[in-house]
Design brief:
It is built from 8 helices and 12 strands.
Amino acid sequence: MDNALILIIEDEPEIVDILETYFQREAFRTVSANDGTIGLAHHRRLKPDLVILDVKLPGQDGYEVLAAIRRHGDTPVIMVTALAEDLDKLQALRIGADDYVVKPFNPLEVVARAKAVLRRSLGRDRRQAIRVGPLTVDAEAYVATIDQPSGPVVLELTRTEFRLLAYMAASPNRVFERSELVDACLPEGDALERTVDSHMSNLRRKLSAAGAEQLLSGVRGVGYRLADRHG
């Protein structure tokens, strides 16, 4: 985490100055962009360790920038915005944001959340690949596949979907409560248990498309189970 590069994509100069000051005090390097399109160019060229991303931007807005970042990789992204509605948070998390901070914010809190996201990203458990029936989860390669007669099918997952799948795959057949999944796998500051249902719905759809719809099931009133029902 030492000397990590933080890309700040924000069009308010005062906010950029504050964030850069606080991040640099903690020995982070910073670079900024006041436009979504310029921010994406910086991301491709500089390959930052983490992105602080506003929603309302000139050029491409924050959601478009986040989607573009996710199409090309897994750089951690924290959304910083004045939009405080739950639907806005859910949209950012569905696209693949790692955390969400609402303006006005305490810059110390933003730095603390960035450190937490970086620890989770850079310090992931490097266990061997986990198998649950036709599912293989390789935490080191950050890849999940479903075995089919024609060969393995790669699941195209968001970061949060992958974290949920890997966490459950480590204890197959166990029922996980929503509150545990929130604490273990979802971004800090997002305590909405219904967010888990949204991610699980997307995950189940992707498993079904890969021919493994039996793996993930809901347990009424409790949470979710990952199990090979035919194994």
